[in-house]
Write a structure and sequence with these properties.
Blueprint: E1 2-8, E2 14-20, H1 27-33, E3 52-55, H2 66-74, E4 82-84, E5 98-101
Parallel strand pairs: 1-5
Antiparallel strand pairs: 1-2, 3-4, 3-5
């Protein structure tokens, strides 16, 4: 089953992405699959913040882990709604999620 996730890129364009829930992907990998400008330099280990995004609506996300919290405490452009895309697994719970890519460091 696919879920719909909307992601606003750094130019303000909103992309409506079909995200498969059966491939063990995360939001960072989804962005890369659709060729959105997300580096994912560390390969999804919560060590670089190049996949930082802002959560724009009230969709239930998994709780933030210690590694993600530590990385965001050192990252640039962090807001109260910041998350690392690599730490958000794509599940059916994400249907309708709206995100905005954070500025590049």
């Amino acid at each position: 089953m696919d879920v719909l996730i909307k992601i606003k890129d750094r130019e303000g364009t909103v992309h409506e992405l079909q995200a498969p829930t059966d491939m063990a992907m995360n939001v960072m990998e989804l962005c890369k699959a659709y060729e959105l400008p997300v580096e994912g330099t560390c390969g999804g280990m919560a060590m670089c913040a190049s996949c930082q995004c802002y959560v724009l609506n009230d969709v239930q996300l998994p709780e933030m882990g210690d590694d993600e919290e530590a990385m965001l405490s050192e990252a640039f452009y962090v807001k109260s709604n910041s998350r690392l895309g690599c730490q958000i697994p794509i599940t059916e719970d994400l249907e309708g999620l709206e995100l905005e890519l954070a500025p590049e460091n």
